Amino acid sequence: GIISNNDKEIVLTKNEMIIFNYLLNNKERIVSRDELMTELWNNDEYINDNALTVNVSRLRSKLEELKSNVTIETRKGIGYILL
To answer: Which helix (H) or strand (E) holds 56?
Structure first.
């Protein structure tokens, strides 16, 4: 998928898109890592805990690159929140 901001576009991988959409649909609510992994796993692609961290990290970098006004914050030991 592709996300854009101010004429800038960035390509997201399938997993990054799933994570971004899920966080977006639950904006300003802390989403647990388990919820995200279930969302990804239900997509017929098993993702381990470390892979989730890597995907969120790459997604965060891409959002920064876009100079997006949304950020993904980590809630230690719980999950992530899109603000």
So the answer is: helix 49-65
Q: What percent of the chain has pLDDT over 90?
A: 75
What are the two backbone dihedrals, phi and then psi, of residue 5, each rounded to the nearest 5 degrees? -155, 125
Phi, psi of 29 (to 5 degrees): -120, 135
pTM of the model: 0.89
Task: Quote the pLDDT of residue 60.
Answer: 97
Measured from the Cβ of residue 7, the count of other Cβ atoms closer than 10 Å reads 5
How far is residue 24's CA from residue 49's CA, in Å, rounded to a whole number?
21
d(CA 47, CA 41): 6
Q: Report pLDDT for 42.
A: 78
Q: How many CB atoms lie within 10 A of CB 64?
A: 11
Q: Can you say how many angstroms the Cα of residue 4 is from the centroid of all Cα atoms in its chain?
A: 15
Q: Are strands 2-5 and 8-11 parallel, antiparallel or unpaired?
A: antiparallel
